[in-house]
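Every protein is a chain of amino acids, and every chain bends into a shape of its own. Below is the pair of lines this work produces for a single protein:
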Amino acid sequence: MHEYSVVTALLEQCDHYALESSAREIERVVVGIGEHSGIESALLQSAFETFKEESIYAKHAHLEIQIQPIMLACSSCGTSSTPEEQSYATCPKCASKSVRITQGRDMLLLRLEMLE
């Protein structure tokens, strides 16, 4: 389960930001998980609850998960869109095959709420 290593890295990053900010404690960690990131939100939540006890600043933190939809950008017409179907091969506006995924494959730390 790679969620364990993801949470370990996330908590290290959170502790680093808290230390840099001279925070006393982290109250909330908000992450965005892409629909195609390969990360299961329930497993991430479970791993967070388990590993936060080892954190310096996030022992009592709440994890908020926001699912980030797939976003496509078309090189032909410049359209950005969220596909309706699981097919990402063509632009929904101009049917060009010159599209790339710009969102929805990553996990991002969106916000930390800390007490000073």
Q: What stands out?
A: The chain has two helices and six strands. The beta strands are 25-34, 62-68, 71-74, 80-81, 99-103, 107-115. The helical segments are 3-20, 41-51.
